[in-house]
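Why predict the complex rather than its parts? Because the way molecules touch one another can change local conformation, and only a joint prediction can capture that. The input here totals 232 residues.
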Amino acid sequence: MYLCLMYSSELIKGTLKTIVLKLLSDNQKMYGYEITQKVKELTGDKIQITEGALYPSLHSLEAEGILSTETVNIGKRVRKYYSLTKKGKGTSHEKVSEFADFMNTMKFLLDIRPQV
Amino acid sequence: MYLCLMYSSELIKGTLKTIVLKLLSDNQKMYGYEITQKVKELTGDKIQITEGALYPSLHSLEAEGILSTETVNIGKRVRKYYSLTKKGKGTSHEKVSEFADFMNTMKFLLDIRPQV
DNA sequence: AAAGATACATAAGTTTCTTATGTATATAAG
DNA sequence: CTTATATACATAAGAAACTTATGTATCTTT
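Output of the joint prediction:
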């Protein structure tokens, strides 16, 4: 069986928002750094979300009205919690369902072996 | 159960080369247009590879030594067949295996429901 | 005191795709 | 017969999403 340390970056492209929305639908509220660590932990380091990818993505989801934010002071440091809006909960389910459907299609496509 | 007509374009990003390499590992040789039609057919129009994406991708795979080409004249028209080189056969298996591994990881990641 | 972890942010550059355009032949429809 | 659609290639401009690099600042461990 095949095992790799980390996936090639093209593979992960397009899945970032789905992952973030799913985590937020399971955890009510999370902050950016927490999301990066959670994904690293849950995937055994196979998927590592970089901050340069995550923060702009969170900002755009907020601008779309999918996420709302709450800023909390931790000592002298600021922590920005994100949570799904009502609209965001719908978007989250749609994205996860779409990805599940996509995985079925890809599984079918990559399993076929006609001529050879 | 969720069903969609076509996947959002971000989702498909990064999977094009994997799909092409898998088709070529099952069919020995195919030409560009044939690949677009085959994918459309096999996925019930859910994945539609555009020629603007496919041809540059085929060219770069050829430049990397993963594909080799053979030009055939069909009447007055030209058809360019692509097939996997020896190196390409290895790459094809790797890409498909990597994607299968990635799907397992994503399935796990998107199924988790702890706190809620 | 320094190194590493926590925590945010942005900007330049790259890759990969979409959309548009171009060329040309073959076939089906009106 | 001529127009639309399908076949078959190709490239180029622009958009989107990421990587890599950089910046700021605090907290904790060594």
